[in-house]
Amino acid sequence: MNTPLISAGALLLTLSFSATAEDMPGMKMDGMNMDGMAMESTQAAPTASAEGTIKAIDGERHTVTLAHGPVAALHWPPMTMAFKTTPGQLDGLQVGDKVAFEFRNGNDGAAIMSIRKQ
Description:
Strand order of the largest sheet: 3-2-1-4-5
Number of domains: 2
Number of strands: 5
Largest sheet: 5 strands, antiparallel
Distance between the termini: 85 Å
Radius of gyration: 26 Å
Helix content: 10-25%
Structural class: alpha+beta
Strand content: 35-45%
Shape: globular
CATH architecture of the largest domain: Beta Barrel
């Protein structure tokens, strides 16, 4: 049996697989998808709509707690939950107001995209 020939063949086969993986442009496999776009929670979750009543506003934490009706797009029943907001989104709104709102439910929680008094 010719051991150096078998070893050389195995080495050549290993190197060819390695070179093939490196020759695939835009195909990084280290937490990135094709073309270098991050596959983390930065992907936009779909927007859902609901109507509800403001139960609490926390200006320091930038959250609003809403008792909302069912959200058909997410198969959610009616519930009361906190949503993240950005400064200024809740200007003119207060506890007890009935509102219509759009939000995204991402990996880091639900965030208000728009909210308006009804």
